[in-house]
Design goal:
Length: about 375
Amino acid sequence: MIENAQTRAVHAGTVTSIPMDVRMGKLFVRATANGVEREFIFDTGSPSIISEELAAELGLEIVASNTGRDANDDPVTMGIAVLDTLDIGTARFEQIPVMVFDFSSLPTGRCVVDGGVIGSELLPHGVWRLDTERGEMTIAPEIGALTPSAGALDLELMQAGYPFPPVISYRLGDVEDRALFDTGSAGFASVFESVMNSRQARSAIVPGSLREGEGSEGESAGGRGPVRSIAHYELSRLELGGHTLEAVPALSRSNPPTLVGAGLLDRYAVTIDFARHNLVLEPRAELATPDRPTGFALAYTGRSVEVVQLFAGTAAAQAGLMLGDEVVSVDGQALDTTESGVCNTVRWLAGTFDAASVSEIVVMRDAEQIALTIRAEGGR
């Protein structure tokens, strides 16, 4: 049913631009589903998903179910419904198959997700330009309605089946493969670890930039991923669609495919044009400042804020921070995990919190509060 759905754009003759907000490493836009306006995450690496709460408000009928695997390779079953209309600015889409999911079942879900996720099955029904420098998403009927700036790079979009994820070729050292342009991934590049096993690929790592550790790769629909070996580093070069990009911050990724994430938007406005099989990169007038590498990461896990990543040899590790530590406060700021305060904590951790600048962290270990001083700048 879902592969044969007759999704269509009915306002295809106009260009519409709407505000696009970047928070917590994700892209947020407002859209109207069956007449009800909500905020949605725009995620090119996901199918469209409606929150269970919104589906109930709209009276959507579950017509089927689907079991797939999330970003952490965990199986997840969701109901399937059909949304009559989705209005994004003046662009209207009809008969959209959507997954239905209870985001409140995730530790951070209710704090982050409102209406749901606008996903990749809509991409063939227009030309989509994402510009975080201007805070704007533009949807056009065809590329001729937009004027790419000077110096724009054309990358070939590879053929992919439903739900039509935007896939591009990449080359790293002697490895040639395909990557998913996934705006749901906050980083610039998340490289499948098997690719990095190539000697030539590893030679692209900038000397001194490699940090290895352990931790979870993040929370997805099936929950937080398991503890694994992880790494972050800088690549001296990464070839995308035949164009070489330099000084690319990258993370390890245990599951395929390699992802090119929302961090690409720190350097370029990106236009997705399925009709011409193109991904167009337009250099920004001003580059955004990328996040600094950090020695640890914190996240709310459903009962407390915990250390979910820790990198060996960094100042955080040398200070005695341990993976799994329950964090009580950071630089004197108590972390509220009560029912009324937890969402403020989640949004602060995913937004303005900067692990690279932390100088003191208080943890609860074996029923005792321990204050740890991280002396080196940057948490390294």
